[in-house]
Amino acid sequence: MAQRIDVKDLDVYYGTFHAVADVSMMIEARSVTALIGPSGCGKSTFLRTLNRMHEVIPGARVDGTVTVDGVDLYDPAVDPVAVRRQIGMVFQRPNPFPTMSIAENVLAGVRLNNRRISKSDAADLVETSLRGANLWKEVKDRLDRPGSSLSGGQQQRLCIARAIAVKPQILLMDEPASALDPISTLAIEDLIAELKNDYTIVIVTHNMQQAARVSDRTAFFNVAGTGEPGRLIEMDDTRTMFSTPSVQATEDYISGRFG
Ligand SMILES: Nc1ncnc2c1ncn2[C@@H]1O[C@H](COP(=O)(O)OP(=O)(O)OP(=O)(O)O)[C@@H](O)[C@H]1O
């Protein structure tokens, strides 16, 4: 299920703008990796290149390789739609389909992939995905109600259920709790801790406590100035990054001196 990701010499461009330069990193299977750094340093841009999501932005392109269990995602023979099925994404704002029922929201990704699925298999998949996202108990009696009838935190867990329903190996999360209240945030963090038993997780967060709580490894990105590309400054075990980082800029950022 879970797979490791090996990024080598990755550069990302928006047209002529060089947004991220020369990133190499290894992301272990069944681990949580946090991407941190000041606004504009390229965290989201980098994250999107891990499932070719940046390709939906006109002019965005990469150089370098992203290898998932031996397969280069950028090999011309690889289908980007298949990549996004294998590597799911959860965004900052919960984005369930508002008029679609809770159950249909869970199945939305599966249906988009044109997979035929019997009624009883669909019901099973809805249940296991909602259980996986820690939402089942709260919604099991109202699966036919619209996705928009849920609270923000529940909607985000519904989006996680939708992401895991397609059985990806990797989950990318772009500030998944930043629009949520503290209790929902903790629920998402608990869920991330459980999900890493089955998935490789990469999460962008601005919240240092959250990075320290949920991740095994932390990668610090920085940008030297406007118009400059973001770069990976250092990456290490989260505990080391937060106690004895090697680079002064990491320490300054983590301790709140900038960013
Ligand atoms: N669609 C786009 N077109 C052109 N430039 C973009 C686009 N998206 C992002 N950028 C630029 O790329 C750089 C990196 O942006 P990105 O959003 O990846 O940073 P970030 O570290 O995730 O920031 P934040 O923490 O504010 O979300 C920035 O200079 C940004 O302005």
TrEMBL record:
Record flagged with keyword Transport: yes
Occurrences of domain ABC transporter (ranges): 5-248
Coiled-coil parts of chain: none
GO molecular function: ATP binding; ATP hydrolysis activity; phosphate transmembrane transporter activity
A single GO cellular-component term on record: membrane
One record GO biological process: phosphate ion transmembrane transport
Entries under InterPro entries matching the protein: AAA+_ATPase, ABC_transporter-like_ATP-bd, ABC_transporter-like_CS, P-loop_NTPase, PstB-like
Top-level taxon in the UniProt lineage: Bacteria
Alphabetized UniProt keyword annotations: ATP-binding, Nucleotide-binding, Translocase, Transport
Protein name per UniProt: Phosphate ABC transporter ATP-binding protein
